[in-house]
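Input:
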Amino acid sequence: MDTVNLVNPTDTAERFRLLVESIRDYAIFTLDPEGHVTSWNAGAQRYKQYRADEIIGRHFSAFYTPEDVASGKPARELEVAAREGRIEDEGWRVRKDGTRFWANVVITALRENGRLVGFAKVTRDLTERMQNEERLRAAVQELDAFAYSVSHDLRAPLRSIDGFSQILLEDYGDKLDDAGRHALERVRAATQHMGGLIDDLLKLSRVSRGELRKERVDLSAIARAIVKEYTGREVAITIAPGLVVEGDPRLLQVALENLLGNAWKYTSKRPDARIELGEVEAAGAAGKRERVFYVRDNGAGFDMRYADKLFGAFQRLHGTNEFEGTGVGLATVQRIVRRHGGRIWAEAKVGEGATFYFTVGE
Amino acid sequence: MSNRKILLVEDNPDDVTLTLRALKKNNLTNDVIVATDGVEALDYLFATGAHAGRDAADTPDIILLDLKLPRVGGLEVLQKIRADARTRLLPVIILTSSTEEKDLIEGYSLGANSYVRKPVDFVEFVEATRELGLYWLVYNQPPPQHR
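Output:
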């Protein structure tokens, strides 16, 4: 048993005050009901640059930008906090020297026996996180622009390799034996395969670029149009009606083309092939019901041990001699789903089929 | 189509060889002028520079235009073609490796008649050239002021 006496309430309050005062990573301070600063911790001094004796007693609107002060935001935030108990906000705040930082702010109303006695305010400096996000976004954009220009410049020599191989076959084919002609055919096949890889890379970079549109998208209608193109085999295709979401119609079409196209491809060796697009409801974060869509097939499936490789670009779980492909399709789908704020995962069994689940954000 | 004339604007010598071969395989080679950049193409069309003294009224029947060209790019060539009364109505077919939406929109906005992406597969390219030649040099009725 701990022998330190923690029962004395004033002692606990004092310890708590000392604890809060020493926190450096959060600005934690209190306000009176009118918004004047009544306490100040180390984090507050670090972020806002005021010493306790400089700021206690002053109004907290000093931390807001002149624009926010002019629009009455500080008073509004206290109003909401008093009414609803709490308010959270993210935005620019001002340090003592006038520089700005991007802050996450939570204001909580403090009540004693129902009477408002003030507010507790916790502020985090997110400037660095925001700058990192911006740097990351710029790097991704640069990478995609690079992938794009490389994709174009790589196609030109491929056309030459393929074209001149074909010229050799046409004009000098009679001077070559079967092995020689076969070698040239292999050159052409490889060239065209590389052309396919480059095209897929280009598509992958394309889904990351450009604005994400938000409009009403009927996944069922898109899927029906896609599978209309699938001919030459008997496949039982079921598409649940009315799967309507908010999202980018062009990108969601690309995602469905890839998922349904995979289902079509990997069921090609089954006489009783089945493909299904549907929706299930699942418990999402914070107890909210979440719409989960799925594309299910009874095709070749895959070994779940390799599931983590499924969505990597140029990763394949089947040999090219078994099923054609470049390994870019699911990477593309994942990017599209993520851009929408959704998730994608899969369940499968070798020889029994695969189910790809995805959400499209809220 | 014996007296039809094609202006091919293309800087990559391999692409020139392959395009000429594709045209030849489809009996479309009677008269192909090759310009290896935008300046040369414009000089030819407007009888300036290296082509001063040529009869500018003797325009090609179609122009096959690459977009990525040294000195003056394909889109700028197209713009100048459309801005001049002598060449304003000439059929221009963009022949490029780009399928970038921006290039397509700009190409069509500037008045390209057609936009074709060069396939990697040469057999496909020969077929595309055949259909292009057939359409633009045989079936298509050229603009009246021309010929």
